[in-house]
Amino acid sequence: MLAGKALKNIFRRPHYGDDIILQMDAIGVGSLPIVVMIGFFSGAVIALQMSRALSQYGQVGKTGTLVSLTLVRELGPVLTAIMVAGRNSTGMASELGSMKVTEQIDAMRALGTDPIQKLVTPRLIATCVMLPLLTIIGDFVGMVGGFMIAKFVLSIESRQYWTSVWRALEWNDVTQGLLKPLVFALVVSLMGCYQGLKTTGGTQGVGRSTTQAMVLATVLIFVLDLLITDVFVSQGGS
Amino acid sequence: MPPETRTAVLRFENVTVSFDGDLALRDISFAAFEGESRIILGAAGSGKTVLLKTAMGLTKPESGKVFVFGQDISTLSEKRLFDIRGKIGMLFQESALFDSLNIEENVAYPLLNQPSIHCPKADVLPRVKQTLEFVELGGTLEKFPSELSGGMRRRAAIARAVVTEPPLQMYDSPTAGLDPITAHTIMALLIKERDVSQATTLLVTHRFQDGNLMANFRYNSEQGALEPARNGAQQKSRTTFMVMKEGRLIFESDQDAIESSNDPYITKFVKQRV
Question: Which domains does chain B have, with CATH numbers?
Answer without folding.
Answer: 77-271 (3.40.50.300)
